[in-house]
Amino acid sequence: MIDRLSKRIAAWLARQLSIDRDTEEVYQYGLNLLLLNLLEVLLILLISYLLNTFYTTLIVLLVFTVFRGVGGGAHMSTPARCLLVGTVQIVVLGVIAAIPVNKTILSFLLLGTLLFNFGVIIKWVPGGTEKKPLSEPTVRRRAKLISFIITFSWLTVTLGLVYTGNIRYVLAMILGSFSAMFLVTPTGYRFNAILDVKPNLSKGGEQNEVL
Amino acid sequence: MKFYSIFLKVFTALLVFVASTGISPFCWCGQYEPDVPKALKK
């Protein structure tokens, strides 16, 4: 649906501005990215508002996006699956993040996530895909460095929340970071591949080829 | 008419910007990457 809509809007822009086919394709690609992500963010915020978990979901979404932007990781094969899986994932994490957890458990979770992040950054960041392999050493080094900076900033903000008494948002910070880094690991790729199954009711389901 | 043409130019500039962020190694897109158009491939 989003692909078709992007194609139509790009074709309309091409008629209005008399541009060549290559530029039209660039517009279509930009529209595709913009519409899909806007729709996903709006859906996530709307559902979380209805579930009364708006702020925790917003924090999960922001933290996830920042880590994901640099760390990369597993992707879905179609926009519809991305929309469904991405929305459900962030909304569910936002709901979990709203559960009150005591300080001791949060401290263990924070320490565990910090160590997990370091391990993932050293070993796997950035997580490439078939369309974007991210294999050049300079790109990989830069991604690791930026991921370390983001992790330290994340830790500072999280500790800041603890010391200012905003403990109810700490779990959201932890879950947003953990879920983004998890998708960079081989287990994260396998987990996404399980969710990324082409429904074929007559044959009982067929799995897509994944990286 | 002038406003309309400015709007189109700003809108298309935004689309080109978004497309360029989409091909960068540090992409903000969620769980799906559309096919990169030939014009944006190296």
Shape of chain B: elongated
Q: Which regions of chain B contain 5 or more consecutive residues with pLDDT less than 50?
A: none
- Residue share in helix of chain B: 40-55%
Rg of chain A to the nearest angstrom? 19 Å
Largest sheet of chain A: 2 strands, antiparallel
User: Helices and strands of chain A, in N-to-C order?
Assistant: HHHHHHHHEE
| Main sheet summary of chain B | none
Report Rg of chain B.
13 Å
The percentage of residues in β strands of chain A lies in: under 5%
Number of strand elements of chain A = 2
How many helices of chain A? The count is 8
Q: How many domain regions of chain B?
A: 1
- What structural class should be given to the helix and strand makeup of chain B? mainly alpha
- Calculate the terminal CA-CA distance of chain B, rounded to whole Å: 37 Å
Q: Based on CA inertia axes, which overall geometry of chain A fits?
A: globular
Q: Overall mean pLDDT score of chain B?
A: 79
Which protein chains make the most extensive interface, counting residues with beta carbons within 8 Å of the other chain's beta carbons? Answer: A-B, 45 and 28 residues
Distance between the termini of chain A: 25 Å
Write the layout of secondary structure elements.
The complex is a heterodimer of chains A (211) and B (42).
Chain A: H1 2-17, H2 21-50, H3 54-71, H4 79-97, H5 103-123, H6 137-163, H7 170-182, H8 186-195, E1 197-198, E2 206-207
Helix pairs in contact in A: 1-2, 2-3, 2-4, 3-4, 3-6, 3-7, 4-7, 5-6, 5-7, 6-7
Chain B: H1 2-23
